[in-house]
Amino acid sequence: MFHWIKSKRYVVTTIMVGLNGLTAAPLLGALNRSTREIIASDGDFEVASAEIAKVAGGLLDYESAWTHSANWGEVFTKEVEAGDYGAECFAQNSQRYLSSGEGLQEAPVAVPTRARSPQNIVVMLTVAYQGELAELETALTSVDAVRRALAALVVLHNKDQLQLAHLHYAPAHFGDDLDTDQLLVNYPELVAL
Questions:
Q1: What is the pTM assigned to this prediction?
Q2: Is residue 109 pLDDT above 70, yes or no?
Q3: Cα(179)–Cα(150) distance, rounded to whole angstroms?
Q4: 4-13, 27-36, 97-106 — which one is most confidently predicted on average?
Q5: 22 pLDDT band (50/70/90 cuts)?
Q6: What contacts 24+ positions apart, CB below 8 Å, involve 135-140?
Q7: Among 61, 106, 132, 189, which lies 20 to 30 A Cα-Cα from 143?
Q8: What stretches of the chain show up as alpha helix (H) in DSSP?
Q9: Is-contact 10 75, C-beta < 8 A?
């Protein structure tokens, strides 16, 4: 008789959503608030997980502004390897054009009423969870697939099943822009929706 040992399955995935900045400009305020909350908590995981869920919900509210999407990830059987890959994703996403949180504390508290909206916004959510979830492990090449993936992130948070939660976005600083040429150069994996 055979006794099968079921190995654990850890998934680390990054979801990237590109938005029309003129339509979704108010989302930048929510992204800045989420980043400030995470920084103020010294990176507390519970806070980061809650903020990732808020951002995913906010993205769902701006579905009509979605222009592009992409996703990638890896599956691991060892938690340490998944954690290392999550740290690697964090470092890579931090190096993307205007996606660093550096200088966020210096951002103005009051936004001038004539602030120019960026042409494009890119939001990157990196999460890890244990198990299998088709909504997060399929190519995000349609609006419906992106909608299901973002909703799945919210559910994972609500069920306390997220094990890693990282947020990056561009442009990350007040007054910065992300024009179409910069979008294509810095985010070549994005697929038009």
A1: 0.87
A2: no
A3: 25
A4: 27-36
A5: confident
A6: 136/11, 136/13, 136/15, 136/71, 136/73, 137/11, 137/13, 137/73, 139/71, 140/15, 140/69, 140/70, 140/71, 140/191
A7: 132
A8: 21-40, 45-61, 79-94, 143-158, 180-186
A9: yes
Tokens coding 75: 């599956």
Distance from C-alpha of 171 to C-alpha of 120, rounded to nearest angstrom: 8
Beta sheet of 191-192, edge-to-edge order: 162-170, 120-130, 10-20, 66-76, 191-192
Distance between alpha carbon 35 and the CA centroid of its chain, in Å? 12
Cβ-proximal residues to 47 (8 Å cutoff; 6+ apart), any chain: 37, 38, 41
The yes-or-no verdict on residue 107 having pLDDT over 60 is no
Angle between the N-to-C axes of helices 45-61 and 143-158, in degrees from 0 to 180, rounded to the nearest 10: 150
Number of residues that make up the chain:
193
| Mean confidence (pLDDT) of the chain | 87
